[in-house]
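Lab notebook, bench 4. Still working through the backlog of constructs that have no structural model yet. Next entry is a single chain of 157 residues. Request: give me the structure tokens for it.
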Amino acid sequence: MALALAVALIATPVHALEANAYPSAQPAPQTACSPLDERQVEGWFESWNQALATGDPAQVAQLYGDHALLLPTLSSELRETPEAITDYFSSFLARHPSGSVTHRQIRLGCNGAVDAGTYRFTLHDPEATVEARYTFVYGLEDGQWRILHHHSSLLPS
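Model written out:
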């Protein structure tokens, strides 16, 4: 059901979602759909994972949209601002994570994409492996592909 909702969200142009979320904002002009393929979406995860490897929370947070929502794996706090997203990654990156996708489904839309599945993180200090479910919703923001929504939760035992 969550995946169906996410797919429905990407079928709606991003500017329409923003206009509804922020009624006082002026709607963005209609834009054509940007070309998009699954390999590009797979590459966004790799870019995100490489940003994690830098250890710089600001570098990771800049991949998220200005009004993105992060529902993180290892925190119960919802992160709805760039500052809150940066704060989460400050503590997460202290564990030196390295992620790999173990299963995924990608759905492409007009100026949006959903990448959902499972991933595994190897953590250091202390050593651990974390298996989690994830959903990334990507969209165009100011001409740049950004993470608009990221949900990650531990796999049940």
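Notes after review: Confidence is low (pLDDT under 50) at residues 1-27. DSSP finds five helices and five strands in the chain. Flag for follow-up if needed.
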